[in-house]
Design brief:
single chain; alpha+beta; OB fold (Dihydrolipoamide Acetyltransferase, E2P); Chloramphenicol Acetyltransferase; seven-stranded mixed β-sheet; four-stranded antiparallel β-sheet; 12 helices
């Protein structure tokens, strides 16, 4: 019995998807719920599982093709068994091969060299391209003789095949749908908002002390570590309730006020930046925030985020400090009106009660849409977050 495999039903905001990868080929045995292909949309990569056990009989679209909701992408012969290879036939074919094939096999170093290059780790492969080095010419010092990035760089510097005398290769690679969508949204934000950024700095001494004092008890009670992000997200949710314009959005000539705080958390992945949404943060506990963020981070790394988890959001928090950023101007995530940028925590000398002390300091940045948020509101909003973080007890009492 033949069973059709259909693309998933996509929401109205996603018109179609592109087939990114087939994990099976025609003739392969498949199991129920086993992933057959990855479908890349503008926002997320979706897995398309097999609905039944059987054998993949037909593939309707190849990699790179565009499909729409519920379109048939493959056919599975339900209950069939994949044909096993015939050893006897293969041996007979090998015996019938002419002896003249031996020299041809001996003269095939090029494919071997290519497979060796493909096996390089990403850093070494990129260095080999930029330095114009053939990995086959390099003696590896890595584990089991593997060629490392340092081997490539040292070989080039020593004149083996450096930039001066080596090739200058270029490679043209199409953008993924997700990267194109990110580019479109960034340009949309730049062209459709009157974006301005205000800055402040926050002393995280008390937050750091609270984390240190309560960490063991928090882990024991909730099974997850108490991080910095939950403090910032909770402080933002409290401030959004006091400054509703920062939590609002523009729709034509109207301003939409949101009576809830759905905060998007920027998460970096191999395919680009995604922003899953924490719903109703004003009602979430610190443990709920930490668990949800950890779950989203794992799903993002594994490509398991759903479209529903990426949609909506009234405000965004992004943390460039995880990559070492000291200061930046984050770009608004439309149709939202503001975004909070966290940065690296650095110990710096500050004046405190007439004394110079060393404290863990962080620069904060708030980018906002000046069309509806005035400078006064943006500054007071950021100062509100600063005051909460420098006095964490205020968050417990909603002050």
């Amino acid at each position: 019995m033949a069973t059709e495999v259909k693309a998933p039903v996509l929401p109205e905001s996603v018109a179609d998807g592109t087939i990114a990868t087939w994990h099976k080929k025609v003739g392969d045995a498949v199991k129920r719920d086993e992933n057959l292909l990855d479908l890349e949309t503008d926002k997320v990569v979706l897995e398309v599982p097999s609905p039944v056990d059987g054998v993949l009989k037909e593939i309707k679209f190849e990699v790179g093709a565009t499909v729409t909701s519920s379109q048939v992408v493959a056919v599975i012969e339900e209950g069939a068994v994949a044909a096993a290879p015939a050893p006897a036939a293969e041996e007979k074919k090998a015996e019938a091969a002419p002896a003249a094939a031996a020299p041809a096999a001996a003269a095939a170093p090029a494919p071997a060299a290519k497979s060796a290059a493909d096996a390089l780790p990403p850093g070494a492969r990129f260095s080999a391209i930029t330095e114009g080095v053939n990995p086959a010419d390099v003696s590896g010092t890595g584990r089991h003789g593997a060629v490392t990035k340092e081997d490539i760089v040292n070989f080039a510097r020593n004149g083996g095949a450096g930039k001066a005398g080596g090739a200058r290769p270029e490679e043209r690679v199409p953008m993924t749908r997700i990267r194109k969508r990110i580019a479109e949204r960034l340009m949309q934000s730049k062209n459709s908002t009157a974006m301005l950024t205000t800055f402040n700095e926050v002393d995280l001494s008390k937050v750091s002390a609270a984390r240190k004092d309560l960490q063991d008890e928090f882990v024991k009670a909730h099974g997850i570590k108490l991080g910095f992000m939950s403090f910032f997200v909770k402080a933002a949710a409290n401030a959004l309730q006091r400054f509703p314009l920062v939590n609002a959005s523009i729709d034509g000539d109207d301003v939409i006020y949101h009576g809830y705080s759905d905060i998007s958390i920027a998460v970096s992945t191999d395919k680009g930046l995604v922003t899953p949404v924490l719903r109703n943060v004003e009602r979430m506990s610190f443990a709920d925030i930490e668990k949800t963020i950890a779950d989203y981070a794992k799903k993002a790394r594994d490509g398991k985020l759903s479209l529903e988890e990426l949609q909506g959001g009234t405000f965004t928090v992004t943390n460039g400090g995880t990559f070492g950023s000291l200061l930046s101007t984050p770009i608004i995530n439309p149709p939202q009106s503001a975004i909070l940028g966290m940065h690296a925590i650095k110990e710096r000398p500050i004046a405190q009660n007439g004394q110079v002390v060393i404290a863990p300091m962080m620069y904060l940045a708030l980018s906002y849409d000046h069309r509806i948020i005035d400078g006064k509101d943006s500054v007071q909003f950021l100062v509100d977050i600063k005051n909460q973080l420098e006095n964490p007890g205020r968050m417990l009492f909603g002050l």
